[in-house]
Amino acid sequence: MDSKERYQILFDKINQYNAGDKGITRVAYTNEEQSCTHAFMRMCKAEGLDIRMDPCGNVIARREGRIKGLPPVLMGSHLDTVYQGGKYDGAVGVTAALEVVKRLNEKGIETDHPIEVIAFACEESSRFGVSTVGSKAMAGLFDKDKVRDLKDRDGITLEEALSFCALDIDSIEYANRKDEKIKAFLELHVEQGPVLEGNHKKIGIVTGIAAPVRFSIKIIGTPSHSGTTPMNMRKDALLGASEIALELEKIAVNEQDYGTVATVGVVDIPSGAMNVVPGEVEIKVDIRSTSIDSRQRVLDHLFQTIQTVEKKRKLEIISKEIISEEPVLLSKEITDMTQAICESKGLSYQVMASGAGHDAMNMTKLCPTGLIFVPSVNGLSHHPDEFTELDDILLGIDVLEEAVLQLAVIDSVIS
């Protein structure tokens, strides 16, 4: 069996774990995600790796190095998905990391440094509104008191979801590796955008990652009969929410030269009915940029808009910050090394920023970090039709393998 066929089988095994018929739904800390995680642990064990799960649910699979006591080189991504997402987001990076180990085992290569494959828990924010939980915990950035009561669409809190998986939110602090020496971290990921395909490039070499600020905004008006309430006497919470959403789009468009984007991804009308003027609406807002100044301008405009809408429509509007993260720069040494690898292999590449958040952004707090992209067909992601060509994934794995080999020796570009 060649590596292409072997990888396809591995990738398909991971995507057996799915709830529903449309796309892939393998949401964090659910039965499907946990079953997939434990299956992956068995796959790692079959390759002779030492397996452990930390208190946050991160899987850490270790291949020992030739020289005892050297810090490990880490690689990986996540196995959870959004609701009705695609097969490739996250899963490519985790399976690619295991495929690198399979190749090293097949070739009988022993590295100086140990190598670890990481499957991070709860990277996606779709269930609780907070992202990259596993890598935050590993980097010592997890604020349990800020997020423990966040609820999913079924009213289950993050604390409860963890307990259903035999995990304790008050023990997550012990997942941190801040005091441990780590050589480097590498993540292979699908781009989730159209840039590489549009520019006919096979590899994206990421220099920085935009970071989100997210808010839950509750708009409170007065529910009333749609047939008996005159238009000029309504306190329509949905129209207030709509006005906020449209203004948010307008200011984000003005900031697009900075790569800034803003999205209202959730609109919830708790007691909505066709014949009732909406009395309460909750929206969830996601604003991202690699420029702190640009992101702040969007935020300032959002809050000004809230005040204007509140006064004009006689509404009460309550905003709550869910999370605020800082944009990060990735290791120049690793990006330069990756660029040299692409040139040596004759692969077309593009140096670029990432508009999406990744576990790599938190790992920069622990060690030099690199992020490698492979193309997404039509730029689709978080969508059932998400697709990346198998040959493009294999090229990404080739680059990842070479990068790991270069980092896992004593005299690498990073000491």
TrEMBL record:
<feature type="binding site">
    <location>
        <position position="89"/>
    </location>
    <ligand>
        <name>Zn(2+) 2</name>
    </ligand>
</feature>
<comment type="similarity">
    <text>Belongs to the peptidase M20 family.</text>
</comment>
<keyword id="KW-0378">Hydrolase</keyword>
<dbReference type="InterPro" id="IPR011650">
    <property type="entry name" value="Peptidase_M20_dimer"/>
</dbReference>
<dbReference type="InterPro" id="IPR036264">
    <property type="entry name" value="Bact_exopeptidase_dim_dom"/>
</dbReference>
<feature type="binding site">
    <location>
        <position position="89"/>
    </location>
    <ligand>
        <name>Zn(2+) 1</name>
    </ligand>
</feature>
<dbReference type="GO" id="GO:0016813">
    <property type="term" value="F:hydrolase activity, acting on carbon-nitrogen (but not peptide) bonds, in linear amidines"/>
</dbReference>
<feature type="binding site">
    <location>
        <position position="382"/>
    </location>
    <ligand>
        <name>Zn(2+) 2</name>
    </ligand>
</feature>
<feature type="binding site">
    <location>
        <position position="275"/>
    </location>
    <ligand>
        <name>allantoate</name>
    </ligand>
</feature>
<dbReference type="Pfam" id="PF01546">
    <property type="entry name" value="Peptidase_M20"/>
</dbReference>
<dbReference type="InterPro" id="IPR010158">
    <property type="entry name" value="Amidase_Cbmase"/>
</dbReference>
<feature type="domain" description="Peptidase M20 dimerisation">
    <location>
        <begin position="214"/>
        <end position="311"/>
    </location>
</feature>
<dbReference type="InterPro" id="IPR001261">
    <property type="entry name" value="ArgE/DapE_CS"/>
</dbReference>
<dbReference type="GO" id="GO:0046872">
    <property type="term" value="F:metal ion binding"/>
</dbReference>
<feature type="binding site">
    <location>
        <position position="288"/>
    </location>
    <ligand>
        <name>allantoate</name>
    </ligand>
</feature>
<feature type="binding site">
    <location>
        <position position="124"/>
    </location>
    <ligand>
        <name>Zn(2+) 2</name>
    </ligand>
</feature>
<keyword id="KW-0479">Metal-binding</keyword>
<feature type="binding site">
    <location>
        <position position="189"/>
    </location>
    <ligand>
        <name>Zn(2+) 1</name>
    </ligand>
</feature>
<feature type="binding site">
    <location>
        <position position="78"/>
    </location>
    <ligand>
        <name>Zn(2+) 1</name>
    </ligand>
</feature>
<feature type="binding site">
    <location>
        <position position="214"/>
    </location>
    <ligand>
        <name>allantoate</name>
    </ligand>
</feature>
<dbReference type="Pfam" id="PF07687">
    <property type="entry name" value="M20_dimer"/>
</dbReference>
<keyword id="KW-0862">Zinc</keyword>
<dbReference type="InterPro" id="IPR002933">
    <property type="entry name" value="Peptidase_M20"/>
</dbReference>
<protein>
    <submittedName>
        <fullName>N-carbamoyl-L-amino acid amidohydrolase</fullName>
    </submittedName>
</protein>
